[in-house]
Amino acid sequence: MKRATGWALLYLGLLLLPVAVGMWAQRAGGLEHRPWLDDWAAGLGMMGFCAVLLSFFLLGRFSLLSTRLGSDRLMLAHQLFARTAVAMLLLHPFFYTLWDAPPGPVDASAARALRIGAGDWGLATGLLALGALLALVATAIWRPRSDMAYPRWRLLHAALALAVLGLGLHHTLVSGRYAQLPAVALLWWLLAAAALCSLLWVHAVRPLWLAVRPYRITRLEPAAERIWLLEVSPTRRPRRAFRAGQFAWIRLGHLRAYDDNPFSLSRANDVQGRLQFLIKEAGDMTGSLSQHRPGDTVHVDGPHGQFAWPPDAPAIVMHAGGIGVAPFVALLADAVARGDPRPIRLIYADRSAAQMIDLEGLSGASALADFACVPMVERPAPGWQGLSGRLDAAGVQACLTHTAVAPWAAQATHMVCGPEPMMDAVESALVAHGVPGERIVSEHFRYDFAGRSPRSLAIRRAWWALSATSLLALALALAWR
Ligand SMILES: Cc1cc2nc3c(=O)[nH]c(=O)nc-3n(C[C@H](O)[C@H](O)[C@H](O)COP(=O)(O)OP(=O)(O)OC[C@H]3O[C@@H](n4cnc5c(N)ncnc54)[C@H](O)[C@@H]3O)c2cc1C
Asked: Which of 150, 281, 444, when mutated, tests ligand 1's pocket best, judged by the most ligand atoms within 8 Å of its CB?
């Protein structure tokens, strides 16, 4: 909680930085005062554009951030703060007092203040930047309901982001009143250059770096119905170690930077640096796995994520839905290697037994001091000995009261990974069961999630609070100007 507040305050500070520098430079004597509403409009524009630039870093692509905050939280912040930016930038032009001017020829002095005189490109680039931003956010919201291939959408998203960056910077520097102050202009150049570098890092530098450090497929075989076990080995010693619970972006044999997919490790590095993944056929890339062979090249970008063992938990209950079992396989193998003595329970739900992986063979979990797996399937075959049903509210209740889980359910830390509806159901049921939010840790396999769980709703509340606080801080800064 403390750490989350620290990151939220850092974000708020960065969001307000251009406004603060602008107010400070104005007080230092750079600009004459103008109506409060004009400065409010400018402040909204500055904060909105700053939120756009900060979004370039909330991608889950930078190990430094993703291993501390979790890629799913970063991506949720990316999606939510993009909405804040759009709202601020849409409102930004309408507060200028110019609109209150009596009908007739535009007041020349106000127009000069706004820098929208004839021949000035600032207004045009501002409108184009806003259009590109709206297209960017609209296509991101619409994509999950469309047939558009994910890699193509990512390319479009990056192209629109580049357009917003370039056009927005031009508009800010040409039309922005505060950007006429050298300190503010310098700050915008620095922020835009940093955002551009982050885009280049993700789409050019990092892929090239990975291309000269490829991995090779050493094992590729079916692990269950429509699930593959992929093992890869590095051709050069990796610079950073992967830990159980983390994930990597992988590209199978090609160099298209915008076309990689995230997969959790089902086994972190052994002494040879080998990595294993359990991959479910879900679409284009995962459906093409069968066409690959041992020896083929794989590019592995990681480690990312922070779905790690909770160090202080007295007991752990894992809730896995379908292929969401993958990170738990790595965590269990890691617990075996460390000789973790704590009670560990795995609730493993899937549609049918045929889709379940050989947990024992892949993790060696039976060697743990105190471990039990509670399997549950939706469509039990005759002779099935586990629970039947799905992990909805009733299913979670049945699992939590199961004799193997019940003694630990209340004091354990609960780790959740699976399809979004299952995660929402499990998290809601856990909260209803009296498990405090800080003892529920989750890993999301989809970034376009609209989770309804208490934790997702708490994140949304924090976003509203942060957006409202930024507006309040803007009002205070303007009062101080
Ligand atoms: C942190 C994380 C860990 C994951 N771990 C595993 C795992 O261990 N095993 C497993 O089978 N699956 C895992 N997934 C899901 C996996 O990434 C997708 O199933 C896979 O990318 C689908 O690719 P596709 O081309 O086959 O399908 P597509 O038809 O192209 O995509 C199907 C859906 O998968 C998602 N997706 C596709 N490409 C990407 C991408 N580049 N980035 C993010 N989402 C994408 C999108 O929501 C898309 O709508 C994980 C996802 C995340 C975010």
From this structure: 150
